[in-house]
Design brief:
globular; Rossmann fold; six-stranded mixed β-sheet; 375 residues; 8 helices; alpha/beta
């Protein structure tokens, strides 16, 4: 999806003069990507909550995000993971693509280096067709490849996201044959984009997902049993209502050409396991969700957390949503966080569906604490 930016060069001026005569439907940009990044949000796992001191860069605002549900005292055995990123690299992603690339890079680094995960990464970039592919590799090579990707092109609001997903499925399917040693690895697709995607028949006005659904249905049974689908997609886009010399003078919010409703409906229709995340994508939330989902251990739901300054004064409480905005103007740059979780053992693997394993509903209160230092 191409959007009109306010760059005063001769070529853009000519294009804008032409736009005076009519407001073309290609004048869209993501609402979400226009927001100024003024917050640093840091997510913490159960392990981080154990008497650690964590330093955060001070920003206009800082947000603490405790995982709503995580694993405590998990087994060191982690399910290996193969992860394919499908990324919109059209012009409308200009404001958010750098954040997306950084999020993907940091997620891969933290998963492999900080968490010691056996993981491989691949990536698909798309505009009006699939324009770039990175085969399975490690986190270092992935970062090097993605840094060359730039937001450009996309000559109408709808893009080839379905072709990107089909390419991701092809990579995973081919890998089953070429890498039998990865047969037990979980298979994961993460879709990131703002614009609605057109059908595989290349008709830019056909948004049906029937062909893509049939591709997933025909995938190897082993792949389908291991596949999980995550997506970070815009809920709304800006639609041009009237044109000026400098682009669109009036922009109207529209869900018609936004990716989130379509991608969410597609995942639900074919029963893909996984979930959606905020747009644009940030690595910290996905990291905690991914680690907690693929690491066996006690499941610990957040009950509450108390935030105090170094003098012991209570600054606020963190509820079950896990989020806390650190107030500005603190007399101290350090905070103490006291966390309480309700922990229960996971259901027995041998338990029949719909039945509870012994002790599955038991809840043990577990308390922990850590410190945050703003620098």
């Amino acid at each position: 999806m191409r959007h009109i930016s306010q760059k005063s060069n001769f070529a853009l001026l000519l294009a804008s003069l032409g736009a005076l005569w009519s407001c073309k439907p290609s004048s869209f940009q993501s609402i979400d990507s226009k927001r100024e990044v003024t917050k640093i949000s840091e997510s913490f796992s159960c392990g981080d909550e154990k008497s650690k001191t964590i330093s955060l860069k001070n920003a206009k605002a800082n947000v603490l995000q405790l995982s709503k549900s995580c694993s405590l005292d998990a087994s060191s055995t982690k399910t290996p993971a193969d992860i394919v990123f499908v990324i919109d690299v059209t012009g409308s992603m200009e404001d958010s693509l750098n954040a997306v690339k950084n999020g993907v890079e940091q997620f891969a680094i933290r998963l492999r280096q900080d968490k010691g995960w056996d993981a491989r990464f691949a990536a698909i970039g798309y505009r009006d067709a699939v324009t770039a592919q990175v085969p399975f590799t490690d986190e270092k090579n992935l970062a090097l490849q993605l840094r060359n990707w730039e937001a450009d092109g996309g000559n109408d609001p709808q893009e080839a996201g379905q072709a990107g997903l089909a390419a991701a499925l092809e990579i995973l399917t081919r890998d089953l044959t070429n890498k039998p040693e990865r047969a037990t690895a979980s298979k994961n697709i993460l879709f990131i984009g703002d614009a609605i995607t057109y059908s595989l028949n290349n008709d830019h006005f056909d948004f049906s997902t029937g062909q893509l659904e049939r591709l997933f249905d025909a995938a190897p049974a082993q792949l389908k049993s291991q596949l999980k689908f995550y997506y970070s997609a815009a809920r709304e886009v800006d639609q041009c209502l009237s044109a000026s010399l400098f682009g669109c003078a009036r922009m109207g919010k529209s869900t018609k050409f936004a990716a989130q409703p379509q991608i969410s409906a597609f995942a639900q229709k074919i029963g893909l396991q996984g979930k959606g995340f905020e747009f644009p994508f940030t690595e910290s939330i996905l990291l905690n969700e991914f680690v907690d989902e693929f690491t066996p251990g006690q499941s610990c739901a957040l009950k509450a957390a108390l935030v105090k300054d170094t003098a012991g004064r209570e600054l606020g409480r963190i509820g079950e949503n896990g989020s806390f905005d650190i107030p500005r103007g603190l007399t101290s740059n350090s905070l103490n966080i006291e966390v309480e979780r309700c922990c229960a053992a996971p259901a027995s693997p041998s338990a029949k569906p719909g039945t509870a394993s012994p002790g599955a509903n038991a809840c043990k209160s577990v308390k922990s604490n850590f410190s945050v230092r703003l620098k």
